[in-house]
Design a protein that fits this description.
15 helices; Gln-tRNA_amidoTrfase_suB_CS; EC 6.3.5.-; 16 strands; ligase; alpha+beta; 20% strand; nine-stranded mixed sheet
């Protein structure tokens, strides 16, 4: 019997507001523990919440970008649970009437087909604090308590770990492009809980599901789902009874382990938040927010393919972040060579950024400088290999490429007469290699080209070198 996975995701994304959801404390990441706090976010007696309007606006903006309907009348609720990171012993969230409902994301499968993944709801809520576990005991940092979140709950439409990853990548790119969240998973700005069960292919009845908590990387999520899929299939085949539970992924061991049995909604004793008024969202406000939504990543990628004639894959990579997309577009327009712009950004520049743990906004050079580098290479002033050296210097110093080329004397040698003399000299100095060529080994021509480039310190025009080496070899 063949099985398939049934996966649904609950994604928590911290919103990029300056202050918390119910008070004026800073949402800035980091800081000394328990310094971004006040009586409200510490849940002290008598402190009352006041809803941050920007949080609601960002919730609406996310919903519109994800094709959701907006509930014009909604409310905040209390979700009761007792845990050290929840100072009030309840979380203010939305239960029955979330701000957004019934949306979707369209993902592209490996075979090129497109699939809509339904979004059940998006609701706004406050984050909890952070527990720090040490040998001496557990400590609590409440800096994060009260930071605003949206929780995006998908429908169980995903059928493989790969589909789940594609969904998350698309979701992350949309949220970051509309600037409601920075989506920095390493800082906890984007966290994911995943629900998975298995069922026989073609069945309409879902199996017993397990929830995997707080995944903060796409790779970890995919591995955890792959492990759970195999665990569930083996249990069903062996006639074992699965229990609905909440699990955590152990990256080191490559396994999930049970934390507790899965809570149900009534375990949280939801009821309306009495200290906050009902939200009334006007049509005018919704339209105002709609107008603020920029061109979305998938829309931008489609335009890049049409406008710049770059491959679909390049366009999808270049639009993963808004900063990269903007940088590419400016370089492509100014250099009039979109493919070269794409190659530099996806290749050497991405490698340098990854190595130095940087983002596009951290680059010392600007799009105009990269466009200038592409133009001097295309003009033949320097070779592509020399261009890589110039780029490294630009990365370190931020200097213009022409300044670096002049300072280091990197202008390409296009003098055929000078290059011919170097070729003749190298052939004279390597009689054995010449004889190998005469004996039929044509591959030694590449050896000659390499020696010429080395002798000229990479400044000789590679095309001219290849042409002259072939000419001289034909005379042997």
């Amino acid at each position: 019997m063949d099985f398939e996975a049934v996966i649904g995701l609950e994604v928590h994304s911290e919103l990029s507001t300056d202050t918390k959801i119910f008070c004026g404390c800073s949402t800035e990441f980091g800081g000394q523990p328990n310094t971004h706090v006040c009586p409200t976010c510490l849940g002290l007696p008598g402190a009352l919440p006041r809803l941050n309007k920007k949080v609601v606006e960002y919730g609406i903006k996310a919903g519109l970008a994800l094709n959701c309907s907006i509930n014009k009348v909604c409310r905040m609720d209390r979700k009761n649970y007792f845990y050290p990171d929840c100072p009030k012993n309840y979380q203010i969230t939305q239960d029955e009437i979330p701000v957004c409902h019934d949306g979707y994301i369209e993902i592209e499968l490996d075979n090129g087909d497109k699939k809509k993944i339904g979004i059940e709801r998006i609701h706004i809520e406050e984050d909890a604090g952070k527990l720090l576990h040490t040998d001496a005991g557990s400590l609590v940092d409440y800096n994060r308590a009260g930071v605003p979140l949206i929780e995006i709950v998908s429908k169980p439409d995903l059928r493989s770990p790969e589909e789940a990853t594609k969904y998350l990548e698309k979701l992350k790119s949309i949220l970051s492009s509309i600037e409601v969240s920075d989506c920095k998973m390493e800082q906890g700005s984007l966290r994911c809980d995943g629900n998975i069960s298995v069922m026989p292919k073609g069945s309409l009845e879902f199996g017993v599901r397990s929830e995997i908590k707080n995944m903060n990387s796409f790779k970890a999520l995919e591995k955890a789902f792959e492990y759970e899929y195999k665990r569930h299939v083996e249990a069903v085949k062996n006639g074992e009874e699965l229990e609905q539970d909440t699990r955590r992924w152990d990256e080191a061991k490559g396994v999930t382990f049970a934390m507790r049995s899965k809570e149900k909604a009534n375990d949280y004793r939801y009821f309306p938040e009495g200290d906050l008024v009902t939200l009334n969202i006007s049509d005018e406000w919704i339209e105002e927010v709609r107008k603020s939504i920029p061109e979305l990543p998938h829309e931008k990628a489609e335009r890049f393919v049409k406008e710049f004639s770059i491959p679909k894959y390049d366009a999808s990579v270049l639009t993963l972040t808004m900063d990269m997309a903007k940088f590419f577009e400016k370089v492509a327009v100014e250099s009039k060579d979109a493919k070269a712009a794409s190659n530099w950004l996806m290749g050497d520049i991405s490698r340098l950024m990854n190595k130095n743990n940087m983002e596009v906004k951290d680059l010392k050079f600007n799009p105009s400088q990269l466009a200038e580098l592409i133009k001097v290479i295309n003009k033949g002033t320097i070779s592509n290999n020399i261009g890589k050296k110039v780029l490294n210097s630009m990365f370190e110093s931020g200097k213009d490429p022409k300044v670096i080329i002049e300072e280091k004397g990197l202008i390409q040698n296009n003098d055929e007469g000078e290059i011919l003399e170097v070729v003749k000299k190298i052939m004279e100095e390597n009689p054995k290699v010449v004889q190998d060529y005469k004996d039929g080994n044509k591959r030694v021509l590449g050896f000659f080209v390499g020696l010429v480039m080395k002798a000229t310190k990479g400044k000789a025009n590679p095309q001219i070198v290849n042409k002259i080496v072939n000419q001289e070899a034909s005379k042997l």
